[in-house]
Amino acid sequence: KTFAFKKIKKTTKNMKIKLGMILAAGVGKRMQPITLKIPKPLIQIGNKNLLDRAIELLINHGVEEIVINVHHLADQIKDFINKKKYKTKITIFHEQGILLDTGGGIFNATKSFKEPFVVVNPDTLWSNAYSSELNDLEDLYFQHKKACLLLVNKKLSFDSSFNGDFNLKDGIVSRDNSNELIFTGLQILDHSVFSSIKEKIFSMNNIWNNLISNNFLIGIKSNQTFYHLNTKEMHDKILSLNIID
């Protein structure tokens, strides 16, 4: 059985994901010296910072509860959330003392989630253009009830240094010797993907590799130009584009 993403039947139209998580605990070493004084998610591009863009994407989708994990300069992120007064419930999960890595961060921050949830990495420059693709990813999840990734061809990446993370054939995600697709930072999960995990600190790569070995990881391709702030150099290049939302 394949999971070719063509035209999703709208039998899932009443099924909506109401829960979301944003990964905001990273130290941002490759963004120094900027991140010595400001946490990476609060870096502004255009008229919004990275965290605000990620939150808006989720709220506009109809997400009613968001958890954000924090660590580096955590008080600045807490203050920003408190001042913005978003119209959705936002909870802070503070990784104090030790970072839990991407997998551990998601697993521990979302322990109260009993339903599927969207996870967003704010390093990507999210915009309203991604809304329809999040809708498509949601439809795909409810059609197959499997973890889903939003991927993009590395040719669409503003940063040409990416080697690629995955391939996609008939909707099924694989990892091969040569990979054409980059993970955008948007995924839909439920807690069943963590069932075999014993560690507290672990990467999502462990989860993805386990799912891939069983053909249980699916995805779709994004059509957006991919802007990802992973280094100080890339930040400066993207900033020079004068992006206005």
Q: What can you see in these coordinates?
A:
The longest helix has 14 residues, at 131-144. Helix 3 (101-109) crosses helix 5. It is built from six helices and eleven strands. Helix content is 26%, strand content 21%. Strand 2 and strand 3 form a beta hairpin. Mean pLDDT is 93; it is low at 1-11. With 245 residues, the chain is α/β, with parallel strands linked by helices. The strands form three sheets. The protein has a seven-stranded mixed beta sheet with strand order 5-4-1-6-10-7-11, sandwiched between helices. Strands 2-3 form a two-stranded antiparallel ribbon. A two-stranded antiparallel sheet has the order 8-9.
Roughly how much helix do the residues carry, as a percent range? 25-40%
| Mean pLDDT over all positions | 93
Q: What is the succession of H and E elements? A: EEEHEHEHEHEEEEHEH
What is the strand tally? 11
Largest sheet: 7 strands, mixed
Distance between the termini: 41 Å
Radius of gyration: 17 Å
Shape: globular
Low-confidence stretches: 1-11
Order of strands in the sheet with most strands = 5-4-1-6-10-7-11
**Number of separate helices:** 6
Summarize this, please?
The protein has 245 residues and is of the alpha/beta class.
What key phrases describe this protein's structure?
globular, disordered N terminus, 245 residues, alpha/beta, 6 helices, two-stranded antiparallel sheet
Give the helices and strands, then pairings:
Elements: E1 19-24, E2 44-45, E3 48-49, H1 50-61, E4 65-70, H2 74-84, E5 89-94, H3 101-109, E6 117-120, H4 131-144, E7 148-153, E8 167-169, E9 172-174, E10 181-189, H5 204-213, E11 218-221, H6 232-239
Parallel strand pairs: 1-4, 1-6, 4-5, 7-11
Antiparallel strand pairs: 2-3, 6-10, 7-10, 8-9
